[in-house]
Amino acid sequence: MKFKPLHDRVLVRKIEEDDKVGSIIIPDSAKEKPMRGEVLSVGSGHVNDEGKIRPLDVKEGDTVIFSKWAGTEVRIDGEELMVMKESDIIGIVEK
Q1: How many Å apart are CA 20 and CA 27, to the nearest integer?
Q2: Looking at residue 83, which CATH number applies to its domain?
Q3: How wide is the angle at C-alpha 20 spanned by C-alphas 91 and 93, nearest 5°?
Q4: Distance between CA 58 and CA 55 in Å, rounded?
Q5: Do the domain assignments include residue 74?
Q6: Count of domains for the chain
Q7: Exposed, middle or buried by CB within 10 Å (0-12, 13-18, 19+), for 46?
Q8: Who's near 6: CB < 8 A, 6+ residues apart?
């Protein structure tokens, strides 16, 4: 894949949540939008008011939680991915 997000944006692959709670299967129409993903690529950083670049806190390979309506869905190499600003990411899931 050849895609590099600009500035403070990140490329994220959504991680689908389990569609079963106990023995109850949740239908597609009732599922929430996935809010967990794996960071595939990051931009160079946030440009502040002084023109200096602050590196991003997330890095490739991080599993992140992001806000429900974050980002823009894109198709790259036939795969549905998301491009979002780092500020839309709520946190990094520690392993």
Answers
A1: 9
A2: 2.30.33.40
A3: 15
A4: 9
A5: yes
A6: 1
A7: middle
A8: 43, 44
Number of neighbouring beta carbons within 10 Å of residue 61: 8
Write out the residue range of the structural domain in which residue 78 sits.
9-16+32-93
Q: DSSP assignment of 3-44, as one string?
A: ----TTEEEEEE-PPPSEETTEEPPGGGPPPP-EEEEEEE-S
**Single-letter amino acid, residue 17:** E
Number of C-beta neighbours around residue 88 at 10 A: 18
Contact present, 40 and 13 (Cβ < 8 Å): yes
Question: Going residue by residue through the chain (95 aa), what tens digit of pLDDT does each one get?
Answer: 688 999 999 999 998 765 554 566 656 555 556 589 999 999 999 988 998 999 999 999 999 999 888 889 999 888 999 999 999 999 999 87
- The 3-state DSSP class for residue 87 equals helix
Encoded tokens for 94: 């520690």
